[in-house]
Write a structure and sequence with these properties.
The structure is a single chain. The protein is mostly beta strands. It is built from 3 helices and 22 strands. The strands form 4 sheets. Strands 1-5-18-7-16-19-20-22-21 form a 9-stranded mixed sheet. Strands 2, 4, 6, 12, 14, 15 and 17 form a 7-stranded mixed sheet that branches. A 4-stranded antiparallel sheet has the order 8-9-10-11, with no helix packed on it. The chain is globular and about 60 Å long. It starts with a strand and ends with a strand. The relative contact order is 0.18.
C-alpha cells in the first residue's frame, strides 16, 4: 500500500458541482492511503476581514474556478481514480483523519434557506475563531471541535451530466452526516471506472439537523484509505464503525427519507445476521436510533445507528 498527498490547488479542485467528466487528478491503487488538503465552503463574502489569515492557495483556487462554478460554494478536492473500480462496485472509504488546518471558520443565515426559511429574512454572517481544539463562538462560548467532511462522493452516473453540489445523492455528495468522522468506514456506490472519489465541505462542528444551513465551515486535512470492494453492495451510501452500523436515506420529504433509512437498515441487519426481514424490522425498532442528519440541503437526510452488539 502506498501513501499519496493531494494538495488543494486550482488544478486539483472544482467548485459547486459533480460531473463524471471531471478528469481525475490522482491515480491510486486499491488499498492506498491518500492525505487530502481541503478548503472551506466559503465565497468572497464569507472570508475574514484580514485576508492574511487565508491559506496561501485559497484565493488562487477561488479565482481560478469562478468561471466554471456550479451551484454552491463547496470546494472539492479530486477526483481520485482508484484502480480496478468499475460500475457496480463499492468504494470503501476508511476515514482515518480529519484535522482543522486554519484558525478561522464561518457560518451564516440565508433568507429562504435553512429549517426556518421564512423566519429570518435578513442574511447574517458569523465569524468563528478556532483556538486549538475549540470553536469560539461570536458571543464567547467555546465548544469542542468534532471535525468531519460534509462531502464524500464518487462521481455521479455519466447520463446525469453535471449536477449541483447542494444535495446528497446516491453517489454521496453533501451528506453532512457528522457520523462520518475518523474511525468510520463509508461505503459508496461506484458508477464510473475508477470510482472518481472527491471530498470537501470541511466542518469543524455540526449538530444533527444543521438547522440554520451551516456548520462551523472551515478547512480540513483528511486522510483516507480507498479500497475497491466487489463482494458487497451499496444501494445508497452506508457506513460502519467498530461499534455500529449506519444506514442513510435522502429525500425532499423527511418521511420518505426516514422510510429509506429504515429499509436500508433492515438490509444491513439481514446481511450481517441470520434474521429475516420481519425480525430485522423489529430489531431496528428496538435497538436502532434514527436521527435527522440535515434539514437544509434540498434532499433531507435521515440516518440510522444500530449498535453491533444488538445483532
Amino acid at each position: 500500500m502506498a501513501h499519496h498527498i493531494l494538495r488543494s490547488t486550482p488544478e486539483t479542485c472544482f467548485l459547486g458541482y459533480f460531473d463524471a467528466r471531471t478528469p481525475p487528478v490522482l491515480h491510486v491503487d486499491s488499498g492506498d492511503e491518500v492525505t487530502v488538503e481541503g478548503l472551506p465552503a466559503a465565497g468572497d463574502t464569507d472570508l475574514p476581514s484580514d485576508l492574511s489569515r487565508l491559506l496561501p492557495e485559497h484565493r488562487p483556487v477561488l479565482e481560478a474556478l469562478r468561471a466554471d462554478k456550479g451551484t454552491t460554494t463547496h470546494v472539492m478536492t479530486g477526483p481520485i481514480h482508484v484502480a480496478g473500480a468499475v460500475p457496480g462496485d463499492v468504494l470503501q472509504v476508511d476515514i482515518l483523519e480529519a484535522r482543522v488546518r486554519q484558525d478561522w471558520g464561518h457560518a451564516k443565515i440565508m433568507p429562504l434557506l435553512g429549517a426556518l426559511p421564512g423566519e429570518f429574512p435578513e442574511p447574517e454572517q458569523f465569524a468563528i475563531e478556532i483556538d486549538g481544539d475549540e470553536a469560539v463562538l461570536p458571543w464567547g462560548k467555546r465548544l469542542r471541535l468534532d471535525p468531519f467532511h460534509g462531502i464524500h462522493a464518487t462521481a455521479p452516473p455519466p447520463a446525469w451530466g453535471r449536477v449541483g453540489a447542494a444535495e446528497p445523492r446516491v453517489f454521496g455528495g453533501n451528506m453532512d452526516n457528522k457520523e462520518l468522522r475518523p474511525g468510520t468506514t463509508l461505503y459508496l456506490p461506484v458508477f464510473n471506472e475508477g470510482a472518481l472519489f472527491s471530498v470537501g465541505d470541511g466542518h469543524g462542528l455540526q449538530g444533527d439537523g444543521e438547522v440554520c444551513l451551516c456548520a462551523v465551515e472551515t478547512a480540513l486535512l483528511g486522510r483516507f484509505r480507498l479500497t475497491v470492494r466487489k463482494d458487497i453492495e451499496a444501494v445508497l451510501p452506508w457506513a460502519e464503525t467498530a461499534a455500529s452500523l449506519i444506514s442513510m436515506g435522502f429525500d425532499a420529504d423527511l418521511d420518505a427519507a426516514a422510510k429509506t433509512a429504515v429499509r436500508r437498515m433492515i438490509d444491513l441487519i439481514c446481511a450481517r445476521s441470520t434474521l429475516d426481514r420481519s425480525e430485522a424490522y423489529l430489531l431496528a425498532s428496538l435497538a436502532a436510533d434514527f436521527r435527522v442528519t440535515q434539514l437544509v440541503d434540498g434532499e433531507k437526510g435521515i440516518h440510522g445507528v444500530l449498535p453491533k452488539a444488538a445483532l
